[in-house]
Fold this protein.
Amino acid sequence: VQLQASGGGLVQAGASLRLACAVSGITKDYYLIGWYRQAAGKEQQGVSCISASDGSTYYADTVKGRFTISRDEDKNTVYLQMDSLKPEDTAVYYCKIQFNSWNSKWGQGTQVTVSS
């Protein structure tokens, strides 16, 4: 299984970005796909995830109302639409596929930088 994250960049506060996590090589069921971020000098934070079974979603309080996670099953891609970006959203964003409670795989990160 390979996860390819893309879409990061440098934007001004208030702008939008859309991250994409393209998943390939899936040969078994998975539980969810999520986005996480890690800012310099800070702990990793869960941002959002989407369930494989029913598409239910979760958002961290810090992004609720501004970020939207979605999936395109035909393209095996999960998107994170990020609106009203703030400087505190600056981080490396990673996607992860969770197969079950003990088996997951991370993609490489994509840098998001929001200037004030």
